[in-house]
Structures are given as structure tokens and as C-alpha cells.
Amino acid sequence: MVFSKSLGKAVAVYSGLVGLLYVFFGFVELLDGFGLAMGSLLNISEAVFIPGDPFAGAMLIITGAVYLAGVDSLSVGNREGLSFLAVGVLLSTVLFGLYLAIMGSNFLGYVLGFEDWVGWAWTDDVRPGLWLWFSVIPGILVALKKDWRE
Amino acid sequence: MKVVYTVALIGNPNVGKSVIFNNLVPGARQHVGNWPGKTVEKKEGRFHHKGVEFKLVDLPGCYSLTARAVDELIARDFIVEEKPDVVVDIVDASNIERNLYLTLLLLELEAKVVVALNMYDIAEEKGYKIDVKKLSEQLGVPVVPTVATRRQGMEELKDVILRVAEEAPRKPRIDYGKEIEEAIASLSEIIHRDEALAGMYPVRWLAIKLLEGDEGALEKIKGSECENELRAAIS
Amino acid sequence: MSVKRRLGGDPEIILAERRYEVISEILRAALVKGAKKWTMTDMLDKVFLHKVLGIPVFIVLMWATFQFTFVVSAPFMSIIEVVIGWIGGLFEAIPNEVLRSFFVDGIFGGLGFVMVFVAPIFFMFFALSILEDSGYLARAAFVMDRLMFKLGLHGRSFIPMLLGFGCNLPAIMATRSIEGEKDRLITILVNPLMSCSARLPVYVLVAGAFWGSTMYAGTAIWGMYLLGIVLAILMALLFRRTILKGEPAPFIMELPLYKVPTFHGSVIHMWERGVVFLKKAGTYLLAGAIILWFLSSFPWGAEQSYTYMLGHVLEPVFRPLGFDWRLSASLIFAFMAKEIVVEALGVIYAMAGETAIGAALAASITPVSGLAFMAFVLIYVPCLATIGVIKQETGSWKWVGVTVLYELILAYIVGLMIVGVGSAMGFS
User: Does C3 sit within 8 Å of B211, measured CB to CB?
Assistant: First the structure.
């Protein structure tokens, strides 16, 4: 399949959107982690499950930055812009896998009845890094296609 | 015709040297120890080919053969002092420029070199095409293409090792340009005057090392009757 | 006329140039570079080696690694704890008092507690194996090289330093890949300052004792890791300027192609590295636990055990830092392996369970001294196993001596500084 300029533009828009999502929720998580409850944002936090870990937020911001970095080259149809998308997707997936593993291991602790896990509910571990991944699935398909031609 | 030929394996790190070692010598017949006095691992093994026995020694992976790094010194000393019958230089075909540097150094050492052009498949993937025959002509040594992970080229490699082991050393000459060659020649002349020294080390190699100010070479000329003259010549 | 002038430069450099010229000529005849296919490796390296994004991306992957190591391994730690407790319980039935104490308090109480940390250690090595096998770790070293160069360290020192956070033993062994002898030596000398996983139980115990599960506890622990890094940098610079003068060797590194790591391969690597810890456990930690138990339980039934006596002998030395005899005694034992501090405190306070020991600690020393204690444990000497590796890798006792000496002095100074600053700021 040819990586045309118009296709590049489409991918650029997609990459930009995903990037912005990550950066936005990254900031929310970051601020939440510092205890800076910001009115309406706090409502969003509770609605979309954001445990307050400032570092996790920072990681999301960096991931978003990678997506955004690729927008420039993708928009002019430069195939090399796919690098940023590819690495962005990789980071998103790593974080997704990590949070899934954390949820899984917490589940294990809960099921075995250890005291640290009493009162755990799976919703405790739902966080942006987890559900944002679903938005990058199209990106995975794009980045994995091996035979792009200029 | 010797009873057992010694074959040294050398190459840059990450070129598949271990894979080739394991292809030639199955695990059970390997022996792992340390280089005497050093903490670097030494791997040895034996294999047979066409009725001849070979002792295979794995030299540490290195990019160069200076006196500055322990690994390089071990490799170099082994070749200079033990004088193996064959030195198999494993070259990563997909990074051939970097890898050939070591090959040239081995030729300076006047070792009996066989080049195993490994990772040939990856080079092809990258779009490189290597004319093996021409490469061999230019270097003056046999070149065997291999894909060690798929055990391709191993039989041919063993054939060539046997052939080179039984031949006399070739002394290929790579020309480094007029000025350098003149400097090497004048140093070589001085070295030749000390017969003992000239008998122990490849003269051209020693001359090159002295030119470079190599610590190890300077050690080797200590006590020689030509030492002062040599030092004067390289100052 | 000098050779240099005749050749127009340093012969070594000129020869190197000539060799590359020869290689170019050879390849001109023998190599045809087809249309260079843009490989996956090139594509990924565009970002991983990016001037701006390279380090942030690295931070993300490292953070994920640490989260994986500590958070995901948590329930497994509890499982191990339960299993050990259960097995230990079987020994409660032994009628002989001394023998029973030997097994229950000494082995299962002491060594058992430490075995819990097998979980995070294996998790960490698994994650590191994946990073290494995929080819990424080489990029990380490359990206950090410029930074490391400014700090007087070699780019290749990066991976050993990173491994030091897991365990200094394999980290020091990994320095074999460093070419310059001086660079390698500096990396070895400074490596013990990277806070290894053995020290974590101590931090958790002490920080938990004073600050519970508040943000301060976490900060204190992070602070220790940071302190280790800062001190490592300072000492590296110091060594560079004084006893190991010279320029870092040029950093030439082969970046292997990226490949998808296999589960099988990663498990093998994890096992190879983790087994080192198990061996250490089987030997030093076990021996340590036994010796510790012996010294703390005998003279049997007496008010003052040997440990008590030992601690009191050392107490004056540590009084300026605010450590009492119990902490002083535990420091001696921790020489064998740093995890032993926790074992020791448990045995010395004759209590079990983190909260109980924690409460006892909080009652006997001030928070500032607690902090100083954590710092002291971070710095003071490498554990016995690490000392063994240093001797093995440097080939002499001289460097072992240097390490032990500088670390003891540094630990004391830093401890004093912490106590000093703390008192000046009004925390007493």
C-alpha cells in the first residue's frame, strides 16, 4: 500500500488526537496525584477512575508527547513519521500491559485473602493508562504494516 | 601434518561467534575456564573433520587489538605467542565496514586467517550484496559465507579451515600508502638486526605497533640490542 | 626528523585512517549496497535515540520496570511469607527449647523474612532480561552516554549502574563490558552506592516506623535512592580527578538489531541472574542468620546476650549519630548481607512483625537518626558477597580496601550531616 500524502494527513490527525488525549489525562492524573483537586476536573477524575499517582501521570504525558512529535512529518506524507506512532503505540501497550498485570496481581492478593488486599475492588485499578490503550488499537494496525512504500 | 591443529575464533562482539563455536563443538565437548591470571572466560573445545583433530579456542570478542583493553590483549597475545594454525575471523556481513577493521589487524599479525562472513541473511535483508570472490581476492584470504543460526556454511568452513591449516602461511600484503610504508620499512630494517627479536614476532607487525606507540610492543623490545635505535626512530 | 612530522600527525591516528581507507577500497570492489531497505530497527531508533525524546522514553520504560518489580510482585511476596510461616510453624512442635528457637527464630524468623524478597528480585531480572534481549538496553546506554561523559563516567557504565539497583553483584560482574580499565574500576568502586534491593527492606522498616504510610515515608525511601545516585556521581568525579586520573575511553558501541524477545529466553536470563541471589541466600544469609541467632540467644537465658555486649561496645562510636546499641549491633551483622539488618532488629528486639519492630524503633531513636541510619546502611560497606565480587573482578584486595574505607568514612560523614542539619532545623 502506498503511503500517500493524504494517508499521511489522516494518520497525522489520528496521532495528534491520541497524543492530546494522553497529555490531557496525564496532566489530570499528575495534578490529582499532587492533591490539587480542581473542581470540575475532580468530577471527571472520579468518573473516569484516576487514582492519584503523579508519576503515572508524567508517564502518560511523555507518551502523548511521542505521538505529537510525529504529527509534523506524518502530515506531509513522510513515512518516517510512522516511527513516532510506532514507539508511541509501544509505550501505550507497555503501560497497558503493566496496569493489567497490576490489576491481575492485586486480584490474586484479594482472592488469597491477604490483609493488604482486603476491600480491594477491581475498579480501584482502572486508570487512564489502561483504558486509553483502546484508542491506540488503530495505530497498532497502521504501525505494524510492514510494506509501506513511499 | 600435525596431530592436532589449533584454531582460534575471533570477531567483534555480537557477531555470532558463540553460535559458530557451538556449531563446531557441541556443548558436551566444551571446556570453560579462565585465561591464566585474568578474570576473562576462556572457552575451548575439540572437533574432528575428515580424520583430522582440531582444538578450537574462543578468543574474547573485540573491536581492535590494542594493548589498552584486557580482552584485546588476551586475544592478541594468544595469536602472537601460541601461533594458532588457523585464525577464523567472524565478520558480521551486515556491518562489514566496522568488522573488517579487525580483519586488517589480523593480517598485520600475519595470522593464517579465514574469514567467516556471518549473518549473511541479515545483510541481504538490509539490501547489501557482497561479492564473496572479490572480497577474498582483495583481502588475500579465503572467505566463507555463513548463516550460523541456520547452520549454513559450516561444512565449507571446516573444509577451508583444514586446507589453510595444512598450507604454508601466505603473508598477504595490504598497502597503507607511501609514507607509512616507508616508516614501516625503516623500522623493520632495524628490527631485523636483532635476530632473536625478529624470530619471535612478525617483524612488520612489530614495526607498526612501535609506530603507534603501543605499550605492549615497547615492552617487547626492552632489552633488545636495537632498543635504543628503535626508540630514536619512533620519537 | 621526527616520525610524527614526517607523517604529518600522530602515527596511531594516521594508521587507523589508512586502514579505513583500505577497507573502503576493498568494499568499493566487493560490496553493492542495494536500495537500503528501511528496517524496523531504523524506524524505532529514530525515536529511541532521539535527541529530545530519547531520555523521557527511557524514563517511561524504567518506571514501568520498577512498578512491575515492586507492585506486581507484592502478592507473591505475601505468598512466600505465608508458606515460610507455615513451614516454620511445623517446627514449633520441637520440644527442645534451644533447637526450637534455632529453627523458629533463627532460620525461619531471620532468613525466612529475607526470602520474601526473592519475588521482586526475580521480577526485576525478568523485566531487565526483556529490555536487554529486545536490544533496547543498548540504546539506553547510548542515550545516557553524553550525560555520563559529563559526569566522568563511561557510557558503558550505565547498564552496570542500573543493574546495581537490583543487586550489586551481577552489576559489578557486568562491568566486564567496559573497555577502559580506569573507567571500569571507577564503575566498580562506585557501584555499591546504587541502592540495591537488599537495602529496601531496611528503608521500608525504618521509614514505616516513623512516617507510617504517609507521603513522607515514600519520600524518605526515594530520597535514599537519589542520595545513592548523587553520591555515586560525586565519588566518580572525585576518583576521576584524583587517584584514577584520565579521560574516559572513547565510546564505540555496536547497536544490535531489535528483535522480539522470547519468553523462553527471558526466563532463562532471569533465572541465571536470580540464581545468584538464591546462592547468596543459601550461603551468606543463612550463615548470617545462624550466627546472629547464636550471638543473640547466648548465653542462654541471660539478660545480656553476646549481641547486647557487642552493641554496647560500639555504641559510643555511633552515639553522635544517635544510634542506640541495637542499631549498632545490627550494623555489624549487616556486613554479611544488608537484609540482615532487618533480621537483626527483629531478633534483637525479640519481636516479630513489621509494625511491632517499627513501634519499638520509633520509641528508641529520633526520626532524624532514623534517616541517618537509612543513609548509613546505604553507604557504609558493601555486603560480603559484593566484596567477594569486587576482589574477583579487580583481582586485588587493594581496591576492596579502598572501597570499604571510603564508604565507611563517607557513611559516617553523611550520617553526621543529616543529624547536624536535622538538629539545626529543629527536628530533634
Answer: yes
